[in-house]
Amino acid sequence: MDQANILIIGGGVIGCAIARAASARWQDVFLVEQFPRLGMATSTRNSGVNHSGIYYPKNSLKARLCVEGNRLTYEFCEKHNVPFRHCGKLVVAADSHEEPELTALKKRGEDNGVEGLRLVDAAEIRTREPHIKGTAALHVPSTGIVSAEELVHAYARVATNQGANLVTHAKVVSLEPSGNTIRVGLKIGGDADSQEEKIEARCVINAAGLYADEVAAMLGNHSWKIYPVRGEYCEVRGPRSSLINNLVYPLPHPDGLSLGVHFTKTLWGTFLLGPTATYVEGKDNYEKNRLPIAAFAQSAKTLLPEIEERDLQLGYTGLRPKLAGPTHKGGIVDFVIARDAKVPQAIHLVGMESPGLTAAPAVGNYVAQLVKQVLA
Ligand SMILES: Cc1cc2nc3c(=O)[nH]c(=O)nc-3n(C[C@H](O)[C@H](O)[C@H](O)COP(=O)(O)OP(=O)(O)OC[C@H]3O[C@@H](n4cnc5c(N)ncnc54)[C@H](O)[C@@H]3O)c2cc1C
Question: Which residues contact 121 (CB under 8 A, 6 or more apart)?
Fold first, then answer.
């Protein structure tokens, strides 16, 4: 049976960033991904925003790892030629009733250590985004846009160069604790009749995204249930894409469901409108019952009155791995990053929704500290 020091389940941005951090410190690091390529799930179906950390409760993992991840992501992109734009964003109050919420957001951001936050008036909104209608806004200078796909592949490339083995078409089907190790059952090759292989790992890291609850359950841990919440986008191409210069957000959803349907000027010159937020059945349900374009146009008009239905085309969708079910009213739920209570040589990452893309390099370092305890 093959032996590994560390086996990471999941080749999304989180798994690849962990592989990079782990392979800088340890040998025999393996990452296994069930799909034919890395980053085919949530990690490349998002807004590609390098978030600042203004939204999350003070001292939460989301707040700490997002603020640190924002800085580390820019440094990494710069060093490894990943396309990005450090452009800042506006969170816009549509009317004066929303303005107190902007002040509260500014305070929360400052509590989290986000620098340079500034309330701006309608005149400054017009200077930055001439087509946006709002009474006031919060300017967030540290926010930016990155190429999510190239970021995933760059983390993977660095990990590989450091000696990690990243294997695609390799699905984890069983986990069996055995003394101080875990026996990992793998189906390799993607064929229905492919043989199961075993690999024995001293530390197993569950970075399985939407399936992290099911992977935890393979160890008998049923603490979590992941609810897929679909985010859908529309895209504006051609001359009308100049209606937006950078990033424009409404106020976030009060229940922590989403940051609100926003405008993102892409690195390829179009702009995206989205993502929406709808609980769906099925962890691969990207397309069933898509929202009509009219629904996007209608909601976008509040901040961008000039937008017309004919400007929009349906774009891609992504699924948020939510820990909060549809009846949840308690605000933002934090990331879970912890060793298994009964099988401490396993580390679970559950509920890695936004700002996971941003936080990934900080998550990698955080998990490396937990691995150090496991391998001690
Ligand atoms: C609509 C939307 C917009 C978002 N916008 C942003 C944003 O602008 N900025 C930001 O910071 N974050 C954003 N996010 C969040 C961000 O995309 C996620 O936090 C991040 O991609 C999660 O990465 P991951 O590696 O945990 O998950 P994934 O990318 O889903 O990777 C998990 C991988 O595990 C694999 N896997 C699962 N089970 C197994 C198994 N048994 N064996 C082998 N492999 C397995 C899967 O195939 C998958 O590739 C957004 C998310 C959504 C849905």
Answer: 136
Which of left, alpha, beta for 54 (phi over 0: left; psi -120 to 50: alpha)? alpha
Whole-number Å distance between alpha carbons of 16 and 30: 10
The atom number, within ligand 1, closest to the CA of 66 reads 11
Q: How is residue 234 written in tokens?
A: 């529309």
> Average pLDDT per run of 10 along the chain, which is 376 residues long?
93 98 98 98 98 97 98 98 98 95 97 98 98 98 98 98 97 96 93 85 98 98 98 96 97 81 95 95 96 93 95 97 92 96 98 98 98 96
Domain boundary among 322, 348, 364: 322
Cα–Cα distance for residue pair 224/136, rounded to 1 Å: 40
- Dihedrals φ, ψ of 113, to 5°? 90, 15
The verdict on the CB of residue 46 being under 6 Å from ligand 1 is yes
- Among 64, 70, 77, 42, which residue's Cα sits nearest to residue 112? 64
123 inside domain: yes
Residue 61 falls inside a structural domain: no
24 and 369 Cβ atoms separated by less than 8 Å: no
Judgement on whether residues 305 and 337 belong to the same structural domain of the protein = no
**Does any domain span residue 294?**
yes
Full residue range of the structural domain in which residue 141 is found = 86-145+228-322
CA 47 remoteness from chain centre: 9
What's the CA gap between 34 and 253, in Å, rounded? 33
Residue nearest (by alpha carbon) to ligand 1 atom 38: 208
- Best mutation site among 46, 73, 262 for ligand 1, i.e. most ligand atoms within 8 A of its Cβ? 46
d(CA 215, CA 184): 11
65 by Cβ neighbours in 10 Å (0-12 / 13-18 / 19+) ranks as buried
**Ligand 1 centroid vs 175 CA: distance in angstroms?**
21
Q: What is the CATH number of the domain that holds 113?
A: 3.30.9.10
User: Same structural domain for residues 162 and 140?
Assistant: no
Report d(CA 94, CA 97) in Å as an integer. 8
